[in-house]
Amino acid sequence: MNRLLGHKVRDPTENLDFFDAEMDECTDSYVQYIFEEISRYADSVVMVEQRLDFSKYVPDGFGTGDCVIVTDEVFTVIDYKHGKGVAVDAEHNP
What integer pLDDT is reported at residue 10 of this predicted model? Predict the structure, then answer.
């Protein structure tokens, strides 16, 4: 995604223990989706790996948005997940 935004990046797969064609295809689709979202608005601010603090609503609540897009009309948080078969329960999950 940083490459899409014009930033210099190193090969993110070089230090991965596991990487395959399916993962490559999924991340390409993810980047394409973000590109389409950014293209919808002329003046958008795009933040990558942005820390999000929602402790006003949940005590000590925070997270990281993989991609946050801010425009005059819309605030979009996109969080990529690639854990096929790995269930994460939202209830009682701090």
Answer: 73
Which residue do the tokens 């997940």 mark? 81
Tokens of 89: 């329960």
Q: Residue 22 is inside which H or E element, if any? A: helix 21-39
What does each C-alpha distance from 82 to 19, 20, 22, 27, 53 come to in angstroms?
11, 12, 10, 9, 23
Amino acid at 52: L
CB atoms within 10 A of CB 28: 10
User: Which among 27, 40, 92 has a CA at the least distance from the CA of 69?
Assistant: 40
* Averaged pLDDT score across all residues of the chain: 83
Locate the domains of the chain by residue range.
Answer: 1-85
Distance CA 41, CA 36 (A): 10
Per-residue pLDDT reduced to its tens digit, 58-67: 999 998 999 9
